[in-house]
Amino acid sequence: MERGLPPSGARAVSTEDDARAAAARGTIAAGRAVLGIELGSTRIKAVLIGDDPSAVLASGGHDWENAFVDRRWTYALDDVRTGLQEAYRQLVADVHRRYDTGIWALGAVGVSAMMHGYLAFDADGELLVPFRTWRNTSTGPAAAELSERFGVNIPMRWSIAHLYQAILDEEPHVPRIASLTTLAGHVHRLLGGRDVLGVGDASGMFPIDPATRDYDEVLLRRFDDLAGGRLPPLRSLLPQSLPAGVAAGLLTADGAALLDPSGALRAGAVLCPPEGDAGTGMVATNAVAPREGNVSVGTSVFAMVVLEGPLSHLHHEIDLVTTPAGDPVAMVHCNNGASELGAWAALFTRFAAAAGARMDSDSVFEVLFREALEGERDAGGLLAYNLLAGEPIAGLEEGRPIVVRTPDSRLSLANFMRAQIYGVFGTLALGMRVLASEGVRLDRMLAHGGLFRTEGVAERFLAGALDAPVTVGDAAAEGGAWGIAVLAAYTRSGARTDLSAYLRDLVFAGGASRTVQPEPGDVAAFAAYLDRYEAGLAIERAAVTAL
Q1: Helix (H), strand (E), coil (C) string for 187-251
Q2: Residue 414: inside a domain, yes or no?
Q3: pLDDT > 50? residue 3
Q4: CB 33 within 8 A of CB 103
Q5: 294: closest CA among 430, 452, 104, 423?
Q6: From its phi and psi, is residue 203 left (phi > 0), alpha (psi between -120 and 50) or beta?
Q7: Is 506 within a domain?
Q8: Hey, CA dihedral for 518, 522, 528, 529, is it positive or negative?
Q9: Measuring CA to CA, which of 53, 144, 347, 509 is 20 to 30 A from 385?
Q10: C-alpha to C-alpha distance for 89 and 264, rounded to whole angstroms
Q11: What is the pLDDT of residues 451-493, one digit of tens each?
Q12: Lowest-confidence range among 7-11, 44-48, 434-438, 497-501?
């Protein structure tokens, strides 16, 4: 439940609650509320915040799924439109239930979405090929060549790798490309008509120069030489890169009608630069200053660590991206997160229903996570691989979810669930070992995502996996939709202070959080588990070949 609000339909239990509800109603009616939308890999979520950016006033959402079409992961752009409308419709309904009012105007709007991938449009704005998401791993030759030519790690999911692979493959659409963008950039164009990106999202398209906080001019020219005249200059195809706090246009009449086909919503709200889910995760956990890091867990799982200085070597496990303000960040990105865990939870949900004990999914997750705490620290010898898609950190072009154990392992529900949660953090821990070898220091690691809703479980295992304290804030489950709403509020405020100070002093001051210190027994057990996990990747490779 959002902080400071009574349950839907319930009577406020104190004068303070009544005052909060009245203040929220006044903010919404005056058109000062701020809307944040994030298009995640399994859910499109919309949240509304008010004058106090730390408190969520209302929310709405829409579930969606990627499809594997012609051996590529994709989403239909028609589903983007319908999903946005449904998430906004649910948010408006939530506002009406809570405050008995509607939404006629907004103070600011922000859009976030999954980073990377490939959205190529022609001069008329028509999509040239189906959206290729971050999850695709068909760009290996392009990523390898660009990494060598640039001297910077270019991961397979980056937009520039997709573009160069299309050039190498001589795809017929390449000569018609007039613009490239990300999913957040595409939605921002629908809402505001401008071809821009937040610098954090832009850093997942093409390398950013830390000095200018814009695309690296030297590497742009190097790419143009590689393209050999088969494209216009790359800069002309990329969205304009903007730092947090800079206004990125206004909500147009067409954009307002897209969100709210009823016609109630008026145009004119300020738009902040659209950002990627990595950047909004950093904002949602207050991890945008040097020596701070965050872990985001969803369909993918990734860690972001704000750097004090450059890394000494190129590492294929590490992306160099930026915060929404443009500060350098080391990113460990794993294509596979909690999807396989969710599939097992769905199986147990169905088992409960078949046994006559109907439970909602939240209750099932609570039971299973609590059971994991009862498991042995080494998960009883079980190994769980959550690899539905390819995993570059593990050197896998495709994935095969597997549970494997030796004859002397101890199979129990507790050990099984602990192995599944360990598996979510497996490849992440491999990447974090690389950062540790570079001497990167962390003062704190913050975590967010639905995996942390059951208190005391996932954060404990993550602390053991990283051998570092892990903090979960009270807004952790709200995730990137709240993070982009905060960035929109920051833009509307005039950005009179730097982003880190804004978050510290106005958003997270006095906010509740919980911190788990790593237990030595958990650290040692996970290190041993990770050694077995790494050795067992040979099983994955064999499964990809055989199945």
Answers
A1: HHHHHHCCCEEEHHHHCCCCCEECCCCEECHHHHHHHHHHHCCCCCCHHHHCCEEECCCCCCCEC
A2: yes
A3: no
A4: yes
A5: 452
A6: alpha
A7: no
A8: negative
A9: 144
A10: 11
A11: 888 999 999 999 999 998 999 876 545 678 999 999 999 999 9
A12: 7-11
Cα(321)–Cα(335) distance, integer angstroms: 16
Distance CA 446, CA 289 (A): 12
CA atoms within 13 A on the CB side of 258: 19
What radius of gyration, in Å, describes the C-alpha atoms of the chain? Answer: 23
Look at residues 110, 160, 134 and name the one whose alpha carbon lies nearest to residue 41.
Answer: 134
Q: φ and ψ at 119, to 5 degrees?
A: -125, 105
Q: What gap in Å lies between CA 338 and CA 192, rounded to an integer?
A: 33
Degrees to nearest 5, angle at CA 255 with 250 and 259: 125
Query: Which tokens sit at 376?
Result: 């042995």
pTM for this prediction: 0.82
- Written as six digits, the tokens of 460 are 């404990």
Alpha helices of 450-518 — where are they, by DSSP H? 458-466, 479-492, 499-502
* Residue 419 belongs to a domain: yes
Q: How far is CA 313 from CA 153, 310, 317, 320, 342, in A?
A: 10, 9, 11, 12, 36
Alpha-carbon distance of 331 to 319, in angstroms, equals 5
Structural tokens at position 346: 């769905």
Please give the structure tokens belonging to residue 225: 């030489």
What are the CA-CA distances from residue 315 to residues 152, 210, 311 (Å)? 9, 18, 9
Distance CA 543, CA 547 (A): 6
- What is the residue range of 418's domain? 339-428+522-546
The answer to whether the CB of 51 falls within 8 A of the CB of 27 is yes
Query: Can you read off the two tokens belonging to residue 350?
Result: 């169905």
DSSP single-letter state for residue 384: E
CA nearest neighbour of 384 among 346, 429, 415 = 415
Number of domains in the chain: 1
Asked, for residue 526, whether it belongs to a domain, the answer is: yes
Question: What are the backbone angles phi and psi of residue 264, rounded to the nearest 5°?
Answer: -70, -35
Taking CA atoms, 476 is separated from 42, 240, 424, 514, in Å, by 17, 30, 18, 11
Q: Which amino acid is at 2?
A: E
